[in-house]
Amino acid sequence: AWPVLAVVGRPNVGKSTLVNRILGRREAVVEDMPGVTRDRVSYPAEWAGRRFTLVDTGGWEVDVAGIEARVAQQAEVAIALADAVLFVVDATVGATDTDEQVVRLLRRAGKPVVLCANKVDGPAGEADAAALWALGLGEPFPVSALHGRGTGDLLEAAVDAL
Ligand code: GDP
Ligand code: MG
C-alpha cells in the first residue's frame, strides 16, 4: 500500500482545489459554500516520482451542534489513518478557533504535518502566510491552490514527510 497523505482543514479553505492541483485534474468537488456533506475520498497520486494515496476530507455536515465539532471529528479520523497530514489554512482569514482545534488534534496524533497557507494568490499575501508561524507547526508554505503558486515547494515537503 502507498503511504497516505490526508488533506485536512476547515470548510472552504481550498482543500479540494489543492487536491485537484496535486492530481492535475478536476476530480475533487470544489464548492463555493461550506457545509456540503461528502465522505472522505481517496485518490492515487504521484509527485516527483513518489506515489501516495491522497485523501480529501470532502465535506462537513452542519448540524445543531455547529460545524466546528464536525470538522474536528472528520479531521480526527483522517489524521488517524494518515502517514502525514497536509493542514490547509486560509491565509487571508488567518488562524481561527477551529484551526486551533485541529492543531490540538494534530499535536495529539503526533503525525508529521505540513502547513499550507492557502489563498496566497500573489506576493501581497506572503505576510498573511508568515503570520501562521504562530500556529507552532513550523514553516507555513504560501500557496495558491487556485493558480498553482507555491505548490511545488509544498508538495516536496509533503512527500518528504511521508
Ligand atoms: P474546501 O471546502 O476546503 O475543499 O475548499 P474548496 O476547494 O471547495 O474551495 C473553496 C473556495 O475557495 C472555492 O471558491 C475555491 O475556488 C476557493 N479557493 C481555493 N483555493 C484558492 C486559492 O488559492 N485562492 C483563492 N483566491 N481562492 C481559492
Ligand atoms: Mg472540499
Describe the structure.
- By secondary structure, the protein is of the alpha/beta class.
- The chain has one domain (4-161): Rossmann fold.
- The protein contains five helices and six strands, in the order βαββαβαβαβα.
- It has helices spanning 15-23, 67-81, 97-109, 126-130, 151-161, and strands spanning 4-8, 40-47, 50-57, 84-90, 113-118, 140-142.
- A six-stranded mixed β-sheet has the order 2-3-1-4-5-6, sandwiched between helices.
- Helix 2 (67-81) runs parallel beside helix 3 (97-109).
- The chain is globular, with a radius of gyration of 14 Å.
- The mean pLDDT is 87.
- Magnesium ion binds at residues 15-16, 58-59.
- One of its GO terms (molecular function) is GTP binding.
- Belongs to the TRAFAC class TrmE-Era-EngA-EngB-Septin-like GTPase superfamily. EngA (Der) GTPase family.
- GTP 1 binds at residues 9-16, 56-60, 118-121.
- Keywords: GTP-binding, Nucleotide-binding, Repeat, Ribosome biogenesis.
- Associates with the 50S ribosomal subunit.
Number of strands: 6
Largest sheet: 6 strands, mixed
CATH architecture: 3-Layer(aba) Sandwich
Spans of at least 5 consecutive residues with low confidence:
none
* Class by SSE composition: alpha/beta
What's the domain count?
1
Instruction: Calculate Rg over CA atoms.
Output: 14 Å
Oligomer: single chain
Roughly what percent helix?
A: 25-40%
CATH superfamily: P-loop containing nucleotide triphosphate hydrolases
Mean pLDDT, nearest integer? 87
Number of helices: 5
Question: Hey, roughly how much beta strand do the residues contain?
Answer: 15-25%
N- and C-termini, Cα separation: 13 Å
In CATH, what is the class? Answer: Alpha Beta
The general outline is globular
- Give the SSE order as H and E letters: EHEEHEHEHEH
Cross-sheet strand order for the largest sheet: 2-3-1-4-5-6
Present as ligands are: guanosine-5'-diphosphate, magnesium ion
